[in-house]
Write a structure and sequence with these properties.
globular, 6 strands, alpha+beta, 16% strand
Length: 154
């Protein structure tokens, strides 16, 4: 998990938020990581992260059994063709039944899969490199969206 967070921190313009006790984030988010493209070093307003690492179950998001010791999950926003290639399904129409608790496998995000997010519990030998590549692509996509917003403001 720390290796993935460190890798994203090295992406040009990346801003990684890891909430800790005493900060402005709710206790539920403490210890998780949120990845943004923010070349000025500040998380953008009104923009969702392009990737996250979560270390525990959230309300309405318990299917990955993240409250068990040693479990964590990477979540990544991907484009429609990538989602199709990874899952064989369309983001808006998931028809298969998934085991969201399986480790080192790409599956649609248990809550946001219909919006084009994938997830991997405990990426390892099978998915580790893929997860880094998908995060790099998501970062590049966020950079492109940022550039379009900036161009629009001019």
């Amino acid at each position: 998990m720390e290796q993935i967070i460190a890798t994203v921190r090295d992406f040009s313009g990346a801003h990684v938020v890891v909430p800790e006790p005493g900060g402005d984030f709710p206790e539920l988010a403490w210890g998780d990581a949120f990845f943004y493209y923010a070349p000025d070093g500040r998380p953008p307003r009104n923009v969702q992260p392009y990737g996250t690492v979560v270390t525990k179950n959230y309300p309405e998001d318990t299917a990955s059994d993240l409250d068990l010791p040693g479990r964590w999950r990477v979540n990544i926003q991907v484009d429609r063709p990538t989602f199709r290639a990874l899952t064989g399904e369309e983001p808006g129409r998931l028809n298969r039944i998934y085991d969201y608790a399986v480790t080192d496998h790409v599956v649609p995000h248990p809550v946001y899969g219909t919006l084009g997010w994938i997830s991997v519990v405990n990426p390892a030998e099978r998915t580790g490199e893929l997860v880094v590549e998908l995060l790099r692509r998501a970062h590049d996509d966020a950079r492109a969206r940022h550039a379009r917003r900036e161009e629009h403001r001019r």
